[in-house]
Design a protein that fits this description.
flat, mainly alpha, single chain, 101 residues
Length: 101
């Protein structure tokens, strides 16, 4: 699932070290900033997520994968577009590896 508006990104759930090292500003620092900036701003409604989970549990043929949340759908669509573009660029090379009859 994507991000749902819960307390997951605040101090009740997300533990931070007291000491911050500048050497990690580009990695852990980015994650810390993200959490601070998105806490209680997440786009997903946790009540709607819970209902979907209950519906899935009762579904006779649930999907193998079900992306939940508009942020998740957007990321998957962006990834698929990038994969499609790369495949188009390298398609002939990929197909050239088949055994010739």
């Amino acid at each position: 699932p994507g991000f749902f508006r819960t307390d997951f990104l605040d101090g009740q759930s997300l533990v931070r070290t007291a000491r911050e090292l500048d050497d990690y500003a580009a990695t852990v620092g980015v994650t810390r900033s993200f959490a601070a900036g998105h806490n209680h701003q997440q786009p997903g409604d946790p009540h709607k997520l819970a209902q979907v989970m209950l519906d899935l549990a009762a579904a006779p043929t649930p999907p193998l994968r079900l992306p939940l949340g508009r942020d998740t759908v957007a990321r998957i669509e962006a990834k698929h577009a990038a994969v499609t573009a790369e495949l188009a660029t390298w398609r002939e090379v990929s197909l050239s590896t088949a055994i010739s009859d």
